[in-house]
Design a protein that fits this description.
4 helices; single chain; binds zinc ion; 2 domains; 186 residues
């Protein structure tokens, strides 16, 4: 079965204490809204996340016919991670685009992909790329939701219908600072 997930992640390098604080605030908020609930049916193969679909999750997803079946779907939980990690789009992977001319990221992005991702993770140094049009920016500021991102905290929704734009914006607001959305397809 195809697996989809969407992750919203804070890109800025933060202290562990800041990361824990933000993650705790978001967890409390999502529990209050009943978007998530404590996963009381934890199962490594079936429901491996700490959090599961909450009773009011329908208020934050787009209205699709199969939305109600999410609760009965394997791996339909939510992870709230506090360790800086590489969030990879897997099968969805594509280069982000220039915000000025919409061109794809330059060849250096692809050629040195493994190197700059590792440096971003190990040294908290977000790479800066320059477009052929002259525009340059840290990679997290390029446009796209199908490209790799490194950071924490991160909230990942596994196999949920699309989150509403309002809810995505709210998550980004709660994370604060610079954020990225990564849509993964395994
Ligand atoms: Zn450009």
């Amino acid at each position: 079965m195809s697996e989809f997930s969407v992750t919203v992640v804070r890109l800025d390098a933060l202290s562990d204490r800041q990361i824990q604080h933000i993650a705790a605030t978001i967890t409390t908020k999502l529990l209050e809204l009943k978007v998530i609930a404590l996963n009381n049916r934890f199962n490594e193969l079936w429901q491996p996340s700490a959090w599961m679909v909450g009773a009011e999750f329908g208020s934050v997803v787009v209205d699709v016919p199969w939305a109600d079946s999410v609760q009965a779907t394997a791996n339909s939980g939510v992870d709230i991670t506090t360790t800086r990690e590489v969030h990879h789009p897997a099968g969805n992977d594509e280069e982000p685009r220039c915000r000025q001319c919409r061109a794809s990221a330059p060849t250096d992005y692809t050629t040195f992909y493994d190197d700059w991702v590792q440096i971003w993770l190990d040294e908290s140094t977000e790479p800066v790329f320059t477009c052929t049009c002259g525009w340059d920016a840290p990679i997290g500021d390029w446009e796209g939701e199908f490209s790799v991102a490194v950071g924490a905290p991160a909230i990942t929704f596994h196999n949920w219908p699309d989150l509403t734009p309002d809810f995505l914006h709210e998550l980004q607001r709660l994370l604060g600072g610079r954020t990225a959305v990564v849509r993964t397809h395994l």
